[in-house]
Amino acid sequence: MKTLKFYIQKAYKEKWAIGQINFSDWSQVRGIVQAAQNLKSPVILGTSEGESKFVGLQEAVAMRNAMRKKYSLPIFLNLDHGKTADYLKEAILAGYDMVHFDGSKLPLDENILISKKVVAFAKNKGVVVEGEVGRFGTDASRLYTEKFEINEENLTKIDEATKYVKAAKVNLLAVSIGNFHGLDVSGVSPKLRLKHLQEIQKAIGIPVVLHGGSGIRPEDIKEGIACGISKININTEVRLAFSQALRKTLEANKSEITPYKYLNESIAAAQAVVEEKMKEFGSENKI
Ligand code: 13P
């Protein structure tokens, strides 16, 4: 199987994006992988620190391995928004393909210092590292009840991103360009600052990661990819589809207690969202 580095470079050169889809249980993994199988798309399974603590690092690796073996697909695993080098080392030792160090709340020099340590450790093991400069300022577990306002001060600054990438030597950079985690339930889509993205990308010269992929308009996704986004993270839309289907199924079948019977609709709902995203990202038939 080709490496994650290979697929990231391929996406970057050919202008499409690989999806990172977060999960916290086996049923979600099944929906995600079935989508990848149907569309012949590479995929990154993602776990935040919280998700990985619920699933277990070893167990997440075992799930990836089981799916790779069963489907012979390029399925990778990323530790998303790791806050300490120690936890990322644990994930690397457990067998993750990629780690994301989120030092976005730290002073830039501290962010650089820890990122360098993570990169040094990861490089030895052939593991991909994503860094982050700029803040989206939200957490992925929330849905918004009112319009979410972006604080312009938190957008990624070009000079900081350039300094960071040069010093930390990460493989990819997560940026703040008007994106946020979660969905704005008032229906307002995040507006990506595409010109700003273009300038960042030109300055750093490495693939860009878009977090908060839920709720972003397909036109913005398309233009964003043209401007250098090579990886897009999705969590909320899959969680929402999975949970809504589960509520509906249980509500409609009040005496049903058999998980393998009531989870099928949720798996299918997660799969449908992931397929839609993979098509938008252009990762179909790229294995
Ligand atoms: P959403 O929950 O907005 O899809 O964002 C997911 C994400 O960026 C995970 O890192």
From TrEMBL:
Residues annotated to bind dihydroxyacetone phosphate: 182, 212-214, 233-236
GO biological process, one term: carbohydrate metabolic process
Molecular-function GO term, any one: aldehyde-lyase activity
Catalytic residues of the enzyme: 80
Residues at which Zn(2+) 1 binds: 81, 181, 211
Residues given in the record as Zn(2+) 2 binding sites: 102, 132
InterPro entries in the record: Aldolase_TIM, Class_II_FBP_aldolase, FBA_II
Signal sequence bounds: none
Co-factor note (free text): Binds 2 Zn(2+) ions per subunit. One is catalytic and the other provides a structural contribution.
Pfam families named among the record's database cross-references: F_bP_aldolase
Keywords noted in UniProt: Metal-binding, Zinc
Keyword Metal-binding: yes
Cofactor dependence: Zn(2+)
PANTHER family given in the database record: D-TAGATOSE-1,6-BISPHOSPHATE ALDOLASE, D-TAGATOSE-1,6-BISPHOSPHATE ALDOLASE SUBUNIT GATY-RELATED
Name recorded for this polypeptide: Tagatose-bisphosphate aldolase
Lineage of producing organism: Bacteria, Candidatus Staskawicziibacteriota
